[in-house]
Amino acid sequence: MSTAKNININLKIWRQKNAKEKGGIVDYKLDNVSTASSFLEMLDQLNEQLINSKQEPVAFDHDCREGICGMCSLYINGRAHGPETGTTTCQLHMRKFKDGDTIYIEPFRSKAFPVVKDLVVDRSSFDRIQQAGGFVSVNTSGNTIDANSIPVPKDDADKSFMAAACIGCGACVASCKNGSAMLFVGAKVSQYALLPQGKVEAATRVQNMVRQMDEEGFGNCTNTGACEVECPKGISLENIARMNREFLKASL
Amino acid sequence: MAKSALLKSSIAKKYWMALTGLFLCLFLAGHLAGNLQLLVPNNALNFNQYALFMTTNPAVKILSYLTYISILFHAIDGFLLTYQNAKARPIGYAKTNPSANSSFSSRNMAVLGTIVLIFIVTHMVNFWAKMHYDKNMPLAQKETLAQTGKKQIQLVGIKDSQMPFFQLDESGKLSKEFFENIKTQTQGQYDLEIQDVTKIVNKKDGEVIFQGYKDLYKLTIDFFRDAKYGLIFTIGYVLAMFALGFHLWHGFSSAFQSLGLNGPKYTPAIKFFGKAFSVVVPLLFAIIPLYIHFTK
C-alpha cells in the first residue's frame, strides 16, 4: 500500500524459558516497522534483531498466517488476537498501531493452557474435549452413504456451519474473565446437535464434552459475552445457550 | 452420572443460579408492590394489615421459605463460582482491556451481589427480625376522643369492636396496674396477660380478648426519620439499590441465556424487559426511604 510508513514501537513481551520456570515481562524497542507488515511479521523482525544480537528469539505459535488454522494466539494490549474484532493475530496488521505505541504481548492465560515457552501455550485440553465427544460415529464398512442424501433444513445447516467455523484458537478462554471454554464447547456441541447425523449421539456427546471441559480446569461461564466479541470467527453466544439446552435435555 | 452432573457440573451451576435468580426477581416485584403502600399518606392500618397477612398466611410462608433458600443458594453458588473461576486463571494478565468486550455489570456480579447480600442481612436485622422476634415491637395505636372529650391513645385491634376496652398510659403501653384493675373489677373473671406480643389473653379460659397489629409502619417510618441515623440509613438503602440495579442489569437476561433461551425471536424482548426491570424496580424501592426521610 502506498500509504505504508515505518513506525518505531515499544514492546512488552512475556518471556518464559520453559513450563517450569517463572516468567516475566521484558521490554524491547523495535524501530522501522512497516505499517504494511502483519503483526507476526513484526515479531519475525524482532526475532531477527534478537538473533543478530545473540539473544534467544521470542517463541510464538503460528502456522497458516491466513486466519484459518487456529494456531496463532497472543493477548495483545489486553485483548485476544489484538484490537481488531473478527480477526486472528496473523490477520492483524501494524497499520493498526501508531508510532511510539507500547504494545503488551502476553500468552493466552488459563489453567488449562499451560505456557510451554514465552508466548506458546499448550492447548491440547481442547483436543481432549473434542476427543471426548466432538465427532459422529460412522460405520466405515465400505458402503457409507453420502451425507448429502439426508435432507437437512437450510436454516439448521447454516447454523451448524456457523458453529463449525470455530478454529479452536482459544481466544474465548483467553478473553473470558472466568477462563471458561463454553463458547468453544458450545460451538462443537451445536455443530453436531443441529444435524441429523449428530443428533443420535447428542446426549452422550454433550455430557462427555462438558465433563471433560470441567476436568481440564476451565472456569464457569457467567455470560459476560466477552468470548463472542473476541472470537475471530464470530461464534455466537446462541451456541452456549444451545449447549445449555442440550445438557439439560441429556441430564433429565 | 446424570444426577451428580445436575449439581456439580459447570452448566448445572448456571441453571441453579438462573432459577434462583429469576425467582428472586419475582420476589422483588412482590416485595416492591407491598412496600409501595408506604408512599400512600396515612396508610398505617392498611400497611400493618398487609404485614400481618405476609407474616401469617401459610401460602406466603411457603413462598418466603423458598425465598430464603433461593438467597442462600444463589449466594453460596455465587461464591463457589467466583472461587473456582479465580482458580481457572492462576497467572493473570499484565495488561487488560475488559471494557472492550463486556459490560461493567457482567464483570462485577460477585461484588454487586455481595453488596446486595450485605444489604439483605442488615435489612432483615432491621425489619424482618424485629417483626418476627422482637418482644418490644410497638403495637399499632390511634388517637381517639374519650367520652370526657379528652384525647386518648388506644390500640388498634384486628376486630374494631373490641378496641375501646384498652386505654393506654402516656407512654402508649399497657401497664401492670391496668391488668390488676381489670382483675379486681371483674372479681377475677378476667385475669389477662400478653401473649405473642400482640394478643391479650384471659389466662382462665385461654380466650383471646384482643389482638393488635405489630406496627411495622411506625417502625419503618421511625427508622428512616431517625434524628441521628435516618439520613445514613436512607443513603445506604439507595446505594444498595444502585448495586441491585447493576446486578439485575446483567443478571436478568443472563438467567435466560443460562437456561438455554437465546434466539432472535425472544432475546431482544428479554433484554429490553430485563433492562427496564433493573432500572424501574430499584428506582421505585429507593424512592420509598427518600420519600419517608425527606417528608417529615
Automatic annotation (TrEMBL), chain B:
<feature type="transmembrane region" description="Helical">
    <location>
        <begin position="109"/>
        <end position="129"/>
    </location>
</feature>
<feature type="transmembrane region" description="Helical">
    <location>
        <begin position="229"/>
        <end position="252"/>
    </location>
</feature>
<dbReference type="InterPro" id="IPR011138">
    <property type="entry name" value="Cytochrome_b-558"/>
</dbReference>
<protein>
    <submittedName>
        <fullName>Succinate dehydrogenase cytochrome b subunit</fullName>
    </submittedName>
</protein>
<keyword id="KW-0472">Membrane</keyword>
<keyword id="KW-1133">Transmembrane helix</keyword>
<feature type="transmembrane region" description="Helical">
    <location>
        <begin position="272"/>
        <end position="292"/>
    </location>
</feature>
<dbReference type="InterPro" id="IPR034804">
    <property type="entry name" value="SQR/QFR_C/D"/>
</dbReference>
<keyword id="KW-0812">Transmembrane</keyword>
